[in-house]
Specification:
The chain is α+β, with helices and mostly antiparallel strands. Helix content is about 25%, strand content about 45%. Strands 1, 2, 3, 4, 5, 6, 7 and 8 form an 8-stranded antiparallel β-sheet that branches. β4 and β5 form a beta hairpin. The longest helix is centred in the last third of the chain and has 22 residues.
Length: about 150
């Protein structure tokens, strides 16, 4: 049976994970790509970063974006959360502050899950290796909805 998730369960899924799929519009087409993210409960936003490219160009042009995060145990048991909101690029001291929140948050989740924790921010993503300084951004949350299927 598929049911709606209560808000506290949606926030639990967001807070226990660090990989999701961001959806954005480029031209007249939707795109969905995986990202590493951190859900900042205090600031009520999703924090991430990216090298310059297609995704950043698209989100700057049309700032309505979404993030989907899943916890899938089996075809009969899963949770899925959809966050809808607005892209905001961060610069200067704000970018540094939020990148620090991101790194600390992701490290904490990885430690909780018993996963090897990278020492440097560049180790979260190999795509940044030769592409310069990353752009830090946040998804300002407008709505969160979730679904679950249980046995």
């Amino acid at each position: 049976m598929i049911k709606n998730l209560e808000m506290d369960k949606c926030l639990e899924v967001l807070g226990n994970n660090l990989i999701g799929r961001i959806g954005y519009i480029f031209g007249q087409s939707p795109f969905i790509v995986p990202i590493t993210y951190f859900h900042d409960k205090e600031q009520k936003c999703i924090i991430s970063y990216s090298a310059e490219g297609h995704k950043m160009e698209a989100m700057r042009r049309y700032d309505i974006i979404a993030l989907q995060v899943d916890e899938i145990d089996s075809i009969e048991q899963w949770k899925s959360v959809l966050v809808q909101g607005r892209f905001e690029e961060l610069t200067g001291i704000d970018a540094k502050l939020y990148l620090r929140r991101f790194a600390d948050g992701v490290r904490e989740i990885m430690e909780r899950k018993g996963v090897s924790v990278p020492k440097f921010i560049k180790d979260f993503s190999s795509t940044l290796e030769n592409r310069g300084v990353p752009t830090v951004y946040k998804l300002i949350i407008n709505d969160i909805i979730g679904k679950a299927k249980e046995r």
